[in-house]
Amino acid sequence: MSRLFYASLTLTSKPSQLMFAFSLQMSVESVKDKLWKKCGTSVDSMRLELYDDTNSKVSDLTDNSRPLGFYSPLDGYRLHVIDFDPSSVTSGGWLEDTSLVEKYTISEEEYRKRDGTFRKFKEKMQSQNSSAFENKISDKYMEDLCANIKVGDRCEVDPGAKRGVVKFAGRAESLAPGFWVGIQYDEPLGKHDGIVKGIRYFQCPPLHGAMVRPDKVKVGDYPERDPFEEDEI
């Protein structure tokens, strides 16, 4: 199977000036010798074809002894290098088609066991950056919210727009770090009576109490809803 290699021609009297620069006086064999260093095809296994700037074939450069000028090339013409050596590393697309190259593979299970992988590094960085960012922003943000929530304030809690009264605001040692707001709901929509994990934070009827984060609480004029109130028809 042959392989094509394209070389754009620049004609000059000083062949060493430019890459793929050739003089008309160079023999075809000299041209091949210059090209094999770039395309990897040996001179003996190389056949050259000359194409013009319209992609039309001009001629086959079959005589190694003839000068390049014999085939009347012009600037911008292209040389097609065809490799006919079946054992050449350039044949069959080995330098171009990566699908022909055997790939090293590793199972997902084995990859997870390895230390020092890019995935482990990425997960570590994401964890550190995420935790640092969330702790810095969230704690300060929650503290500011909590400072504007006072015991005795009427409030509405999301989700569900549950209404009640603030009974506690601050840190809760038996819960997760950060700031919490204790709510006594107007209706039995809570989970306790103000005791959480053995510590009493406030007093309220059973199943009327809840501890929520400050960003779930809106304080303001939220009167108790009339359970018998109906929408107008």
| C-alpha geometry | rod-shaped
Total DSSP helices: 3
**Strand-and-helix sequence, N→C?**
EEEHEEEHHEEEEEEE
Question: Overall pLDDT, averaged?
Answer: 79
Terminal-residue CA separation:
85 Å
Broad CATH class of the largest domain: Alpha Beta
C-alpha-based Rg, rounded: 40 Å
Structural class, by secondary structure, is alpha+beta
Uncertain stretches of 5 or more adjacent residues? 1-6, 10-19
CATH 2nd-level architecture of the largest domain: Roll
Q: How many DSSP E strands?
A: 13
Question: Beta-sheet strand percentage?
Answer: 25-35%
Top keywords for this entry?
233 residues; 3 helices; alpha+beta; disordered N terminus; Ubiquitin-like (UB roll); SH3 type barrels; 4-stranded antiparallel β-sheet
How is the topology of this model organized?
Layout: E1 3-8, E2 10-11, E3 21-22, H1 28-39, E4 46-51, E5 57-61, E6 78-83, H2 108-113, H3 118-147, E7 154-157, E8 162-171, E9 179-185, E10 195-196, E11 199-200, E12 209-212, E13 217-219
